[in-house]
Amino acid sequence: MQRVAPRRIANQVINGLYAITPDELNTAELMRKVQLALQGGARVVQYRNKLADPELKLQQALALRQLLNEFDATFLVNDDAQLAAQVDADGVHLGIDDGGVATARTLLGKTKIIGVSCYNLASLAHEAAQQGADYVAFGAFYSSSVKPDAAKASIAMLQTARSELKLPIVAIGGITGQNGAALIEAGADALAVISALWNAANVKTGAQEFSTLFSRT
């Protein structure tokens, strides 16, 4: 199978702790939590808020854009390429129902990052790569409280995908400081985390725990 080379920018910035924001309606509290995660070593932040209305999403995304600039970290928007373009995010992450890579590329331009959820299907990852995606995400690898009915991905599938793809690979789904190392060893470039990060007693310390995993492998 043909190996697809990654876009240089995504290969550089999609790595380490990939923090996906909680459904927080209080913008000041969201900024506080995200800043702690960044101080703990988060390299990527994806804005995802299923409870916010469009006006609040715009407000929060603009605030996150400014904060992420201060930390020189990568800022992505979940699902919404139009919002990503509006706030000049570094890119967008697309699920299966969020429109194609080509549509997002038209909205965002050639230099922005487009990631695609591929669940537990390597075939979707190869398709996304051919369409011009900059990284792919697989999961859920473990039981997830955010998406309890998510399809389960295996470490064996991750290992196979790593051998076939040159795109950065993000692992997601029930990841903790205890099980994350196995995914990095299997080929994940980044660990996408929600509950285990934001529910930690100390978000900064929780982020440091995940970030340390990448220096151990």
Task: Walk me through this protein's architecture.
- By secondary structure, the protein is α/β, with parallel strands linked by helices.
- It has helices spanning 8-13, 27-39, 54-71, 81-86, 101-108, 122-131, 155-164, 180-186, 195-198, 203-216, and strands at 16-20, 44-47, 74-78, 91-94, 113-117, 135-138, 169-172, 190-193.
- Strands 1-2-3-4-5-6-7-8 form an eight-stranded parallel beta barrel, surrounded by five helices.
- The model is unreliable at 1-8 (pLDDT under 50).
Q: Which descriptors would you attach to this protein?
A:
single chain; 217 residues; alpha/beta; eight-stranded parallel β-barrel; 10 helices; globular
Global structural class:
alpha/beta
Under the CATH scheme, the architecture is Alpha-Beta Barrel
- What characterizes the major β-sheet? 8 strands, parallel, barrel
- Give the number of DSSP strands: 8
CATH topology: TIM Barrel
- Our Rg estimate from Cα atoms comes to 16 Å
Question: Class, according to the CATH hierarchy?
Answer: Alpha Beta
Low-pLDDT segments, ≥5 res: 1-8
H/I helix tally: 10
Quickly count the domains: 1
Q: Give the strand content.
A: 15-25%
Helix content: 40-55%
Q: Give the termini distance in whole angstroms.
A: 28 Å
Instruction: Supply the CATH superfamily name.
Output: Aldolase class I
Strand order of the largest sheet: 1-2-3-4-5-6-7-8
